[in-house]
Fold UMP-CMP kinase.
Amino acid sequence: MKFNYLIKKFFYLNITLKNAIVQRAFNVLSLSKFRGRRQQVFKSQAIARQSPPTRVHHFSLERDPPFPPSFLHPNSFRLKGLMGTVDAANKDVNVSLADKKPTVVFVLGGPGSGKGTQCANIVEHFHYTHLSAGDLLRAEIKSGSENGYDIHTCLQKLDITMIQNMIKEGKIVPSEVTIRLLQKAMLESGNDKFLIDGFPRNEENRAAFEAVTKIEPEFVLFFNCPEEEMERRLLSRNQGREDDNIETIRKRFMVFLQSSLPVIEYYKAKGKVREIDAAKPIEEVFEAVKVVFIRKDEQVTA
Ligand SMILES: Nc1ncnc2c1ncn2[C@@H]1O[C@H](COP(=O)(O)OP(=O)(O)O)[C@@H](O)[C@H]1O
Ligand SMILES: Nc1ccn([C@H]2C[C@H](O)[C@@H](COP(=O)(O)OP(=O)(O)O)O2)c(=O)n1
């Protein structure tokens, strides 16, 4: 009797143990399968986040390298190879732009130094076309946000959002975007005299513009203004700009010091900088600006 009981107990324990082992193995398998599937989902989500949506043109800087290495700035990682930079049409754009031998004046200075204000006066007196890189980028964000896509620049909503975020952060947008906008505006203007305001803002902007357009600026108008004065002006500019808040203003000042001043130094070494004291009242600043442009015209006619 007792022996029978022990045999039964042994079989019972054996089955329970086997069941437990099988169950455990099953659990482990299912869990790893689930984890695998979950990782797969995460992986495909990550790929989807990295992949650009299908776009009209797919170029690759690696395949078409018309730019110096400096063009491959860390800033441009997101757009590198996605929207590309050069195609047959773009080459035509560059050839026809360079053929026109346009007069280009770069207008530089810290945020709020009065570049836009003085450019409006120069346009009125000297018949230049004013192209503000910041205005072009803001217009692109606006039209891209409304239409979701811009056929001229091949920028899609994802890129537009990225540009918007960069501006909100006070960062400099990759040159390939800004240069495309400038080229398009230059061609559409029908003029051959341009004030390019707020560009080049860093070494990458400068080198890429020269490499792509083959245009050298006539001179660089540099509005020099103390930071406290620029800050005061920006805080009362009142144009509803997302980047005119104290936090972003400070970041823009930092970017100006670190990235834009070296560009001014570069042109200074070439004797191309015309420096203006921009802390004075608007009319006085313009008197100084006029002298620069009148001298330039006199040099041309002499
Ligand atoms: N010389 C000046 N004195 C006082 N305020 C100025 C002067 N120049 C421009 N402003 C004002 O400062 C703000 C910034 O000028 P803006 O031309 O937009 O600068 P930037 O284009 O360099 O950012 C504007 O509100 C403008 O009216
Ligand atoms: N060459 C340029 C010019 C402007 N931007 C972006 C980054 C700048 O902080 C904003 C605003 O530039 P904008 O010249 O309009 O204004 P401020 O001179 O900063 O007052 O645009 C750019 O990314 N690249």
